[in-house]
Design brief:
The chain is of the alpha/beta class. The chain contains five helices and eleven strands; from the N terminus they run ββββαβββαββαβαβα. Strands 1, 2, 3, 4, 5, 6, 7, 8, 9, 10 and 11 form an eleven-stranded mixed sheet that branches. A hairpin with a 2-residue loop joins β3 and β4. The longest helix is centred in the last third of the chain and has 24 residues.
């Protein structure tokens, strides 16, 4: 397939619907169909491909997303960087609803998800020590600060399977580990991006205090998550579009492009 975009974004229609000359593209993959068609437009000097990870009508639950198809398709259309904004809960009091966290680590607490492209016959063992692209993380933090968004420049996201939220006991355990963020989609999405030699970036928009323990508030509900997320979607759009305009054309300060090469003998 010809190169259609150089930057990918996993996000809904609110991020691209006001762009001009949007092209809708269907991509088939060896892993089945992605969550939806791609919506491709231009931001600055970049062609950007938007894919709603839950489908355009938000009908695909986190544990049922075909992550491998989504990420493979991003690579197929030419993307070298992939940005993954997501709604997330806080596990620490200082990380308040409305804040943004640019995560630098993840903990996989999911079950049964297809989480690698490498199934033989060549033995391939990618390092996940530092999954997220340092160049994109630095730019995201700087951009957020420049436009006045409260941002945390690091954080660990623990990814649970969903669709249920945590019990209080689970939430307390996660908090006691010192982890900051909890979410249902951050793994294996970003890790698969890295396996494909693309640069992954997580942007967590904090919507709640998970089971409510650290914030001394009632446990989270889906309605409250969406309310806070929608109230902050304008900030997320501004961050995404400002940051994308400033992403350099060449990758110079990361080794994301060498992930596969560095994972084999």
């Amino acid at each position: 397939m010809e190169k259609l975009a150089d930057i990918g974004v996993f996000g809904g229609s609110g991020f691209y619907k006001f762009l001009e000359d949007i092209e809708e593209v269907t991509v088939e993959t060896p892993y089945g169909m992605p969550s939806d068609n791609f919506f491709i437009g231009k931001i600055g000097n970049h062609k950007v491909a938007f894919l709603p990870r839950h489908g355009r009508n938000h009908t695909i639950l986190p544990h049922l997303i075909n992550y491998r198809a989504n990420v493979w398709a991003m690579k197929e259309i030419g993307c070298t960087r992939v940005i993954s904004p997501c709604a997330a809960g806080s596990l620490q009091k200082h990380v308040a609803p409305g804040h943004f966290v640019i995560c630098d680590q993840f903990v996989d607490w999911t079950d049964g998800r297809k989480s690698t492209f490498f199934e033989g016959p060549i033995a391939t063992h990618p390092s996940a020590a530092d999954t997220y692209c340092p160049e994109l993380r630095t730019l995201a933090v700087k951009t957020a600060k420049d436009i006045g968004i409260t941002v945390h420049d690091h954080g660990t996201v623990v990814v649970i399977n969903g669709p249920r939220f945590s019990t209080k006991a689970e939430s307390k355990f996660f908090t006691n580990q010192g982890w900051e963020v909890i979410n249902m989609t951050a793994f294996p999405e970003a890790y698969l991006v890295k396996e494909m030699d693309m640069c992954p970036l997580n942007i967590s928009l904090i919507t709640d205090y998970d089971a409510g323990l650290v914030g001394d508030v009632p446990p989270v509900s889906h309605h409250e998550v969406m309310q806070v997320f929608n109230n902050n979607v304008a900030n997320l759009k501004k961050l995404l579009f400002t940051m994308i305009e400033n992403i350099p054309s060449e990758r110079k300060f990361c080794n994301c492009a060498d992930t596969k090469k560095n994972s084999r003998p």
